[in-house]
Amino acid sequence: MVLFAAIVAYVHYGAIMLLAALLTTEFLLLRQGNLVKSIRALERADLAYVTCGVLALLSGALRFGTSAKGIGFYAGHPMFWLKLFLFGTLALTSFLVTRHYSRWAHHARMDTTFTVPATEVCAALTMVKIQMALLALLPLLATLMARNIFL
Fold first, then answer.
1. What is the average pLDDT across 10-28?
2. Whether residue 74 has pLDDT greater than 90
3. Confidence of residue 1 (pLDDT cuts 50, 70, 90)
4. In whole angstroms, what is the distance from residue 103 CA to residue 86 CA?
5. Taking the domains of the chain in order of start, what are their residue ranges?
6. How is the chain split among helix, strand and coil, in percent rounded to 5?
7. Which residues neighbour 132 within 8 Å (Cβ) at sequence distance 6 or greater?
8. Contact at 8 Å (CB) between 45 and 25?
9. How far is the CA of 9 from the CAs of 12, 13, 44, 88, in angstroms?
C-alpha cells in the first residue's frame, strides 16, 4: 500500500508539473507573431494540458481516498475546498481557451487567409495568465492543508 501511495503521489506531482509546462507552452505560442501557423501546436498543447488536468484530478482523488490522514481530515479542511474551487476555475478557464483554439482552427481550415483577431489573442492570453496564477496557488494551498494551517 505504501508503494501504491508513492506511485500515485509521483503521478500527481508529475501531472501538475506538466500542467505548468504546457501552460507555458501555450503562453509562448500565443505571444509569437504569426499565430495562424501555431494553431495546430496550440490545439495539441491544449489537449495534452486537459489530459494532464484529468490525470492530476484522478490521482488527487486517489491520494484523497488513500491518505494516511484520512478522508475526514481533508474533507473538513477549508484549504481542500478552496483547492477544489481553484481547480474548477482553472478547468472552466481552460474550456474557454479551448473554444478559442477550436474556433481559430476551424476558420483557418475554411479560409487560408484567416488571421486571428488581436482581441481574441489578447483574451486567450489573459485566460492563460489567469490559469498560470491559479496553478501557482494550488501548491501553496496543498502545503497549508498538509500542515493543518487555516487562512
1. 97
2. no
3. confident
4. 26
5. 2-146
6. 85, 0, 15
7. 20, 23, 24, 27
8. yes
9. 5, 6, 26, 20
